[in-house]
Amino acid sequence: MNAPTLTKTRLRAGIWEGRLGGAAHDAGVPQLAAYHLERPLDDLSIEAVKDTTDQWAVHLPIPASVLSEGVQTILIKDQATDDTLANITLVAGTPLEEDLTAEIALLRAELDMLKRAFRRHCLETA
Fold first, then answer.
1. Closest CA relative to residue 21, chosen from 38, 41, 46, 40
2. For residue 93, what are the CA distances in angstroms to 55, 72, 99, 103?
3. What SS3 string covers 22-45?
4. Dist. CA 31–CA 77, nearest whole Å
5. What CA–CA distance (Å, rounded) separates 58 from 5?
6. Which of 75, 87, 96, 112 has the fewest CB atoms found within 10 Å of its own CB?
7. How many CB atoms lie within 10 A of CB 60?
8. Who contacts 69 (Cβ-Cβ below 8 Å, separation ≥6)?
9. Residue 111: is its pLDDT beyond 90?
10. pTM above 0.85, yes or no
11. pLDDT at 96
């Protein structure tokens, strides 16, 4: 039997939504748990998708306590196997903006260097 797979469908209004496949309805509701910094998060809900035999709708409201500067990751795990089925990455804050600005400045400098080298190459081979 294949392991269940959890695929993100969307993140809207602070609620992460996904589709769990490969877990038969007749085996009962899959036991999933969400964690942030190894602490369990509440309110993860799982509902059988009508007209299917092995599809489940998964919903996780993202708590405000998770939102912080930098990169935050939430893991959704299968409690029976402890396998990570999905990760939710949230990026926010000023430090990230500064990192991106520095990275863009570095890319611009490298592009300018490449343009100069290319022009010099064109003049030498002309």
1. 46
2. 36, 11, 11, 16
3. CCCHHHCCCCEEEEECCEEECCCE
4. 9
5. 12
6. 112
7. 23
8. 92, 93, 94, 95, 96
9. yes
10. no
11. 66
Three-state DSSP class for residue 110? helix
Direct distance between the N- and C-terminal alpha carbons of the chain, in angstroms, rounded to an integer: 65
Pick from 90, 12, 4: which is nearest to 54 by CA? Answer: 4
pLDDT at 95: 66
Beta strands at 84-92 and 55-61: parallel, antiparallel or unpaired: unpaired
Q: pLDDT tens digits for 17-48? A: 999 999 999 999 999 999 999 999 999 999 99
- pLDDT reported for residue 92: 84
Count the neighbouring beta carbons within 10 Å of the beta carbon of residue 48.
16
Q: Are 41 and 56 in contact (CB under 8 A)?
A: no
Q: Which residue has the tokens 């022009």?
A: 119
Give the residue with greater pLDDT, 28 vs 96: 28
